[in-house]
Amino acid sequence: EPSGSTGRSTIWRIGMTACEEHCLAGAGWGTFGLLHEQVLLREPFATGRQFQFEPHNAWLGTAVEAGLPGIALLLGGIVALGVALGRLPREPRGPPLAGLVALVLTNTFLSNQDFKYFWLALTYAAVVAASSRAALPGPPPVVVPEPSVREDVRAQTLERI
Q: Among residues of the chain, what percentage have pLDDT more than 90?
């Protein structure tokens, strides 16, 4: 590890090595630290003094622990939430959309999805999206006429033809 480094590059390299074995189906929730320790002990490139690191990357951590299904769910949920927020008017959309973008960026380089703020920020954005959408005026309700009225309209239409 270069002088002055935080060690993330080694953690990510070890995580990518673990990913080769586990990213298809996942190793199980909360197993990144254990896998980090196992790879650290067997790979010559892995230098470090501490065991069981957190992934410091939500995407890598999810890939190793939950595999492709977990990545698909995480990415799909974040994209769906971003689309829902993007459809809102500018005023209610700004803060939660900015928070969602910041959350994705910071968790790519700094943290992981185990921290409560990750889920709180996603919950906040989802609540704003749902409540703002519910408050927007929608299209007028569709009124379906009674069957007798429909028959009268149909008969009048046929008479005109």
A: 37
